[in-house]
From TrEMBL:
<dbReference type="GO" id="GO:0019303">
    <property type="term" value="P:D-ribose catabolic process"/>
</dbReference>
<keyword id="KW-0479">Metal-binding</keyword>
<feature type="binding site">
    <location>
        <position position="234"/>
    </location>
    <ligand>
        <name>K(+)</name>
    </ligand>
</feature>
<comment type="similarity">
    <text>Belongs to the carbohydrate kinase PfkB family. Ribokinase subfamily.</text>
</comment>
<keyword id="KW-0418">Kinase</keyword>
<feature type="binding site">
    <location>
        <position position="179"/>
    </location>
    <ligand>
        <name>ATP</name>
    </ligand>
</feature>
<feature type="binding site">
    <location>
        <position position="238"/>
    </location>
    <ligand>
        <name>substrate</name>
    </ligand>
</feature>
<dbReference type="GO" id="GO:0046872">
    <property type="term" value="F:metal ion binding"/>
</dbReference>
<keyword id="KW-0119">Carbohydrate metabolism</keyword>
<comment type="pathway">
    <text>Carbohydrate metabolism; D-ribose degradation; D-ribose 5-phosphate from beta-D-ribopyranose: step 2/2.</text>
</comment>
<feature type="binding site">
    <location>
        <begin position="10"/>
        <end position="12"/>
    </location>
    <ligand>
        <name>substrate</name>
    </ligand>
</feature>
<keyword id="KW-0547">Nucleotide-binding</keyword>
<dbReference type="InterPro" id="IPR029056">
    <property type="entry name" value="Ribokinase-like"/>
</dbReference>
<dbReference type="InterPro" id="IPR002139">
    <property type="entry name" value="Ribo/fructo_kinase"/>
</dbReference>
<feature type="binding site">
    <location>
        <begin position="237"/>
        <end position="238"/>
    </location>
    <ligand>
        <name>ATP</name>
    </ligand>
</feature>
<dbReference type="GO" id="GO:0005524">
    <property type="term" value="F:ATP binding"/>
</dbReference>
<keyword id="KW-0460">Magnesium</keyword>
Length: 292
């Protein structure tokens, strides 16, 4: 089974700061670096390093060679990545000594992607393949609808969170992944109880409190977060979602997949960076065995 990720590709510019700035404040960075990022790329890398076969569908600009090389270097298949005239997306990420962050994103090529090549690529998907998508590209609804029509399992990471974007995509989603704050905002906006959301499964991530799996007709699954020394929380949700998709694509049970994803996220936040911080399958398994 293949994980197809339709999602953003960015170059992340990291600035380590003594604290996150307040309005009007100028701070000197203690360190600066740039690396591959974007929610889509992060999830593709997380899934690939966790052992899945991953195909990325996205777009880069004329300056995107480094980003593509980064994806390919992590084992992601990139034949479905378009090159457009708009510059590659980028993010400015400020990180404080406790690992908390503030992020500014310019979508760039991610919003200039052409729909037809994405739909043509999906025609090669097999029944039961997984599609991962997020809110950092254009055409989420069209791509999710096409994937569901092809018999794919659609996992939607509703971030960055926008109520109307979620409302539009939900009819074409099998599994919705949100954090606890986003879940509360969604329920309030739709004025509906949790069990009446128009989706088969909802996964809620809760940071240090772990994560939960809610599927119709089955008992809820709650997994704890593994204790860890937090260095950088950037990309933690992407790690969890990508590894969850990888585990499900390799026929793990929902409970095992949730534990696997929680262990991966614990490792990821203990390291600096986004895509570069994603753990391998062997590292995740070793941590799980160590904590048993």
């Amino acid at each position: 089974m293949t994980v197809w990720c339709f999602g953003s590709i960015n170059i992340d510019h990291f600035y380590a700061l003594p604290h996150l700035p307040v309005p009007g404040e100028t701070l000197a960075a203690t360190t600066v670096r740039a690396e591959l990022g974007g929610k889509g790329a992060n999830q593709s890398v997380a899934a690939a390093r966790a052992g899945a076969r991953v195909r990325h569908l996205g777009a880069v600009g004329p300056d995107g060679a480094r980003a593509l090389a980064g994806l390919a270097g992590y084992g992601v298949l990139c034949e479905g990545v378009q090159q457009v005239e708009t510059p590659t997306g980028h993010a400015v990420i400020m990180v404080d000594p406790l690992g908390e962050n503030a992020i500014i994103i310019d979508a760039g090529a991610n919003r200039a992607i052409a729909l037809a090549p994405v739909l043509a690529a999906l025609e090669h998907a097999a029944l039961g393949d997984i599609l991962l998508l997020q809110n950092e590209t254009a055409f989420q609804v069209e791509v999710a609808r096409a994937a569901m029509g092809l018999g794919m399992e659609v996992i939607y990471s509703a971030a960055p969170f926008e109520v109307e974007a979620v409302r539009a995509v939900l009819p074409f989603v099998n599994t919705l992944v949100v954090n606890a704050v986003e879940a509360a905002q969604l329920l309030a906006a739709l004025n509906t109880p949790f069990e009446d959301l128009p989706v088969e499964t909802v996964v809620v991530t809760r940071g240090a409190e772990g994560a939960s799996w809610h599927a119709r007709g089955t008992p809820d699954i709650c997994v704890p977060a593994l204790p860890t020394q937090v260095v950088d929380t950037t990309g933690a949700g992407d790690c969890f979602t990508g590894v969850l998709a990888a585990a499900l694509s390799m026929d793990a049970s929902p409970e095992d997949a949730m534990h696997f994803a929680a262990a991966a996220a614990a490792m990821q936040v203990s390291r600096p960076g986004t895509a570069a911080a994603m753990p391998t399958r062997a590292e995740i398994e070793a941590l799980i065995n160590e904590r048993r």
